[in-house]
C-alpha cells in the first residue's frame, strides 16, 4: 500500500502537538504554517510590555520536528481546499494531496464588524502585534518627555485596553507596572502619577469565565496597580489619537495614542471559508472524534473547532490546553484508522484556568482557588512548563527573576521611527545650531 499523507494547517499548540504525536506512524506528515516559528501566545503580552524578547517565547518549527523522520515543514499560507479531491492549495499555487487533513489554523482578532479600527487598535495575536504595541508605548514616553503642553503629555500617557478577558487584564496590569514602576523612573519629566491606564469592558466584571469572587479579586488587584476600570462600557469608535466610549451616562471621548484591542477573537479566515458546517461564531462544527461533520478524513482542532462536549450546550474555549489535548487525540485517531479500529470520543480534561494581573498578582481557578502571590507562582510554574525548549525556559525564568528583584525590563528596544506606523505622533525636529557667522547675536567680524 502506498504511504498515506497527513497535512496539518497551522503550527500552533494543536497543530504542532498533532505533528509530534504522529512520530513513527506510517504516513508522511506535512505541516504548513505562515510563520517559521511556533509562538507561545500566553506570554505574548510580556513581549508587548518589554518584559521578554521575542525570541524567548518562539521556537522554529523545523527545529522542533528536526528529528522526526516522517515530518516535513512548509513555510506558506493555505488559501483554499478542495475537500472532494482531498487537496489544499497554497498562495503560491502549490497543491498538497492528503488522506487526512488537520485544520489547526487558530484564531484572529475580531473587531465585530469594524475592521477599520485595526490600524489604530492592534490586537495581540503574533509577534508583529506585540512589537508594534511595545514600540507605541515606548515612543509615547519618549514624546511625553519632550512635550511642552500639559494636555499633550496627558494624551501621550493615557493607555486604553479594550476587553476584560485574560488578554486585557494582563495587558492593563503590565502596562501600568511598566509605566509607573519602570519607565517613569528613567525619565526626568514624567512622574508615576502622570500615567493613566484604562480597562474598558462591556460586562459588569473582568474575567467572566472565572467565579465572581475571583473576578472581584482580579479587579481589586488591578485597582492596586491604579488601573481605571470602566464596566458596562462599549467602544463606539476608534480613530487616530482617540477612542469614543459609551455607557449608561452617555458618550465620552478619550484622547490617547495607544489602544490595545483584546475584546474578541474569531476563527481564522481559512476555517470560515471552508465549505463545511459552521456554528454561529464561525467555528467549524465537529463530531465526537473532532472530525468535521460529513468529512471523517478532515479534523478541526483548537480555536477553529466548535466542539461541544457531551451533556454541554457550549463549545470548548479556545485555550492552549484544549488545543494540545485535541492535537494528541486526532493523532491517535489517525493511528486507529491505519489499524482499522473504531474512533474514540474526545473528552477534555479541564485542569483549570488562570490569569496574571502583575507582579505577585494573579488568580487561579481549578481544583483549588488561589489569588495573589501563590496564584502568581503557580501561573509562572505552569507557563514555564509549557514552553518549548530548555533555552527558552531558562531565559524566561531568568528574566522573571531579574525583573522581580530589580524592577527592570531589558527588552525596551525601539526600531520604528517616530512619526511612522510605530507611533502616530512625530517628534518635533531639533533646530540646527547656527554657525557664528549666521548667529544674529554674534559680534561683527
User: What's the CATH class of the largest domain, please?
Assistant: Alpha Beta
Indicate the CATH architecture of the largest domain.
Answer: 3-Layer(bba) Sandwich
Give the N-to-C terminal Cα separation: 97 Å
Strand order of the largest sheet: 5-2-1-9-21-20
Shape: globular
Poorly predicted regions: 427-445
Tally of strands: 25
The structural domain count equals: 2
Give the class from helix and strand content and strand pairing. Answer: alpha/beta
* Proportion of residues in extended strands: 15-25%
The chain-level mean pLDDT equals 90
**Which bin fits the share of residues in helices?**
25-40%
CATH level 3 topology of the largest domain: FAD/NAD(P)-binding domain
- Main sheet? 6 strands, mixed
Rg, alpha carbons: 24 Å
Number of helices: 11
Features:
single chain, 445 residues, alpha/beta, FAD/NAD(P)-binding domain, 2 domains, six-stranded mixed sheet, four-stranded parallel sheet, globular, disordered C terminus
What is the gist of this entry?
This protein has helices at 13-21, 44-48, 61-64, 127-146, 150-156, 166-183, 212-224, 269-273, 320-338, 372-386, 390-406; strands at 4-9, 27-33, 37-39, 58-60, 71-75, 78-82, 87-90, 95-97, 100-103, 107-109, 158-162, 196-201, 227-231, 234-239, 242-247, 250-255, 258-261, 265-267, 284-285, 291-292, 295-300, 305-306, 353-358, 361-365, 369-371. It is an alpha/beta fold and 445 residues long. Helix 1 runs parallel beside helix 9 and helix 4 (127-146) runs antiparallel to helix 5 (150-156).
Amino acid at each position: 500500500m502506498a504511504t498515506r499523507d497527513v497535512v496539518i494547517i497551522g503550527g500552533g499548540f494543536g497543530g504542532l502537538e498533532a505533528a509530534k504525536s504522529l512520530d513513527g506512524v506510517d504516513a508522511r506528515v506535512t505541516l504548513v504554517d505562515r510563520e517559521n516559528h511556533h509562538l507561545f501566545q500566553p506570554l505574548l503580552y510580556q513581549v508587548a510590555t518589554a518584559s521578554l524578547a521575542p525570541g524567548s517565547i518562539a521556537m522554529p518549527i523545523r527545529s522542533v520536528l528536526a528529528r522526526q523522520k516522517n515530518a516535513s515543514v512548509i513555510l506558506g499560507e493555505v488559501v483554499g481546499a478542495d475537500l472532494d479531491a482531498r487537496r489544499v492549495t497554497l498562495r503560491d499555487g502549490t497543491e498538497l494531496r492528503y488522506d487526512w487533513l488537520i485544520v489547526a489554523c487558530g484564531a484572529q482578532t475580531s473587531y465585530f464588524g469594524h475592521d477599520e479600527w485595526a490600524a489604530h487598535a492592534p490586537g495581540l495575536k503574533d509577534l508583529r502585534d506585540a512589537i508594534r504595541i511595545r514600540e507605541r508605548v515606548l515612543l509615547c514616553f519618549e514624546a511625553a518627555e519632550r512635550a511642552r503642553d500639559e494636555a499633550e503629555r496627558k494624551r501621550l500617557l493615557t493607555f486604553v485596553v479594550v476587553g476584560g478577558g485574560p488578554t486585557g487584564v494582563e495587558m492593563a496590569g503590565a502596562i501600568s507596572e511598566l509605566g509607573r514602576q519602570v519607565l517613569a523612573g528613567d525619565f526626568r519629566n514624567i512622574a508615576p502619577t502622570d500615567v493613566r491606564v484604562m480597562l474598558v469592558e462591556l460586562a459588569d466584571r473582568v474575567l467572566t469565565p472565572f467565579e465572581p469572587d475571583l473576578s472581584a479579586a482580579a479587579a481589586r488587584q488591578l485597582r492596586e496597580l491604579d488601573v481605571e476600570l470602566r464596566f458596562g462600557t462599549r467602544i463606539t469608535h476608534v480613530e487616530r489619537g482617540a477612542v469614543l466610549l459609551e455607557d449608561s451616562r452617555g458618550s465620552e471621548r478619550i484622547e490617547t495614542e495607544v489602544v490595545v484591542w483584546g475584546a474578541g477573537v474569531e476563527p481564522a479566515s481559512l476555517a470560515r471559508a471552508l465549505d463545511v458546517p459552521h456554528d454561529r461564531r464561525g467555528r467549524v462544527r465537529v463530531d465526537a472524534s473532532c472530525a468535521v461533520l460529513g468529512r471523517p478524513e478532515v479534523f478541526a482542532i483548537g480555536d477553529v473547532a466548535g466542539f461541544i462536549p457531551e451533556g454541554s450546550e457550549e463549545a470548548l474555549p479556545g485555550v492552549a490546553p484544549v488545543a494540545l489535548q485535541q492535537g494528541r487525540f486526532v493523532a491517535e485517531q489517525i493511528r486507529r484508522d491505519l489499524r482499522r479500529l473504531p474512533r474514540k470520543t474526545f473528552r477534555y480534561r479541564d485542569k483549570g484556568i488562570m490569569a496574571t494581573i502583575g507582579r505577585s498578582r494573579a488568580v487561579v481557578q481549578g481544583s483549588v482557588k488561589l489569588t495573589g502571590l501563590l496564584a502568581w507562582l503557580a501561573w509562572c510554574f505552569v507557563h514555564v512548563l509549557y514552553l518549548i525548549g530548555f533555552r527558552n525556559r531558562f531565559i524566561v525564568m531568568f528574566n522573571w527573576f531579574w525583573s522581580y528583584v530589580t524592577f527592570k525590563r531589558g527588552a525596551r528596544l525601539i526600531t520604528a521611527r517616530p512619526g511612522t506606523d510605530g507611533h502616530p505622533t512625530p517628534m518635533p525636529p531639533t533646530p540646527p545650531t547656527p554657525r557664528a557667522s549666521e548667529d544674529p547675536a554674534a559680534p561683527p567680524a
